[in-house]
Specification:
The chain is of the alpha/beta class. The protein is about 30% helix and about 20% strand. It has one domain: Rossmann fold (3-Layer(aba) Sandwich). Strand 5, helix 4 and strand 6 form a beta-alpha-beta unit.
Length: about 190
């Protein structure tokens, strides 16, 4: 059901918009990430121009493939958090693995979040499922999310399968529809 954005603006959750995911040769590289990145930046600009709340999630896993001391964990320059925007580091796929994130989200009366970013098959999926079980409402913007190339099979089919699973726990919607209805965002 649509809600007035001025009454209850949803939080834009930018998931793992980090250099790691766009660096060729890395294990979790996102192939053809340019289109998703462009949609993410367009939505981020919309939220910022309307002064709606923005939250950034940063994966800081301690696994051998993900070195948190490396520059690869840095934000994509265009998506770097600005003063006043919230940031949360999370060691496991779900943002709820961050105690600060859990504290913040538990203190919001009506949790409504629009999720964009990378790691669709890890961070976005795990966070939406965890949020669902806490009665937090998430919306995933289908063309503003991306996931790594699977070991086998076609990337588009893999992404569609993940989005279909997400539909059980969150609303899924393309960015064009979200932007067109930005005065009344449905979550």
């Amino acid at each position: 059901m649509p809600a007035s954005i001025t009454d209850d603006p949803p939080i834009l959750v930018c998931a793992d918009l980090q250099v790691e995911y766009l660096t060729p040769g890395r294990r979790h590289v996102i192939r053809d990430g340019e289109a998703a990145t462009a949609c993410c930046l367009e939505l981020l600009a919309l939220w910022r121009s309307n002064l709606w709340p923005v939250m950034h999630l940063k994966r800081i896993a301690q696994a051998a493939w993900f070195n948190p001391a490396s520059r690869l964990t840095d934000w994509i320059p265009e998506a770097k958090p600005r003063p006043g925007e919230m940031t949360f580091d999370h060691p496991l796929p779900s943002a709820y693995s961050s105690a600060r994130f859990v504290d913040y989200m538990s203190n919001i009366r009506h949790v409504r979040c629009v999720m964009i970013g990378f790691s669709l098959d890890e961070t976005i999926l795990a966070t939406a499922v965890d949020g669902f079980h806490r009665s937090h409402r998430y919306q995933v913007v289908t063309d503003a999310v991306a996931c790594r190339q699977p070991g086998t099979g076609e990337a588009a089919a893999y992404k569609n399968a993940v989005v279909n699973v997400l539909g059980n726990f969150a609303t899924v919607q393309p960015s064009a529809e979200l932007i067109r209805t930005s005065g009344a965002v449905a979550v």
